[in-house]
Design a protein that fits this description.
With 463 residues, the chain is mainly beta. It is 2% helix and 47% strand. It starts with 6 loop residues before the first helix and ends with a strand.
Length: 463
Amino acid sequence: MKRIPILASVMATLAAGAPLLSAQNRNTVPLFNVASGAGTTEVCASGDYAYQARGSEGVSVVRISGAGAPAYVGSIQPYQGVGNTDIQDVETVGNILYVGNEVPNNSATPHTGLFMYDLAANPVNPPLVGTITWGAGPGFHLGASLHNFCIDVSAGRTYAYIASAISNAVEVFDVTNPALPEYKDALRPPAGIYGLIWGSVHDVTVRNGVCVSTWLDGGFAIHDVSNIAASHIDFQLEELVSATSLLNHTKYANANTYHAAISEDGQWLVTTDGRSTIGCRTWNLGSISSPTVALTQTSQFTSPTGTVIHSAEIKGKYVYVSNFMDGCRILELTPAGLLREVGRYDTTPTTGGLGYNGVWSVSVAGEKVLLSDTTQGLFAVDFRDSISVTLAEWKRSTGTLTIESTSTASPSVALEVAGFGTMIWNANLGKYRLVVSGVSGNPGTITVTSDIGGSQTSSVRKR
């Protein structure tokens, strides 16, 4: 992955008020902090702009790249002048910004659960192109208030999976045409997990035809939604014809399951929990055997300070978790499903504490890691390695070049020596090492670069 030099940007934005590096931070470099008001929750990004959910204040729009310094540039208010919205979640897919609303009790505004805006027309003040509003279409009342949602694109169609505050189920809509949403299906865990009443669905995520919904003290449920296009309402029979199936329901001891994320290869599930003693866990999705047999847990990570881990996003082999007053932690997800911390950025290094302020959500936007802080607005950091070349020598008698290097993100990162190849992690040495034969002359200097960014150039000693 091509890296862009960021030193000039860092110096400029630090001068503008970005937080200084803290001893609590690891393998991260601060880029900027833009105050966009208190009460921020979820964040997403598209192009040069980030979008932050802010409850009754709508959505804050923050310029994160392009012309001009990072700055707050505007607000999207679904109902102008009426503070009866509670925007909890935001997501961008393609050119559409999806905005989720958990409608307050006795709201004076229409019960709209999902707003859809056209960013291609105007990314700062986008026009509204569709909603899911009570009474506007068949099944729309089921999506008319939501806590969280997920947008998934499958076989050329776009679907909204809504954690409904109306029905306490995952309600699915086809929103390929935002102006004409179509109700598709409802997903629920087994009725028995809550006795006689349905529980509280909290969040939902979809990847590769698999839907994972979280149910707080009910754990999590997994549905096969690979054929969701076939689901429909049979108006003659007045019933829902579902094309989904329950693959698994896992309810672990003392569960308070918040969020879930699926690895890009579909092999691993990462869940977060509202209890600090549980933190986040990984589960082997390949071990699904029946709806009633719990998945196999492979790893667990808890905050060393006892702070609750709220949400997780997986990009490549890294899991980015929001850790409230402990900021953001970056975990390596190994091929065996294990979790190991390799990075951290704390937005409140001098405060600490176990409350629910701090980093609410994390979104990876290109090479920027965006952190939505509940009181301080938007932070952006760069996840990068600190490399130290400990040995660089060339033996004239044999033409052998030997290079050794340490990395603060070892052994999860890949180190490359420009012009000579990839270094190999040596567990016995606790270093990366590369030996190249047949080098005809002393190269003078070598440069070691990490695949997450960061490099060091060192002179080569001749022997």
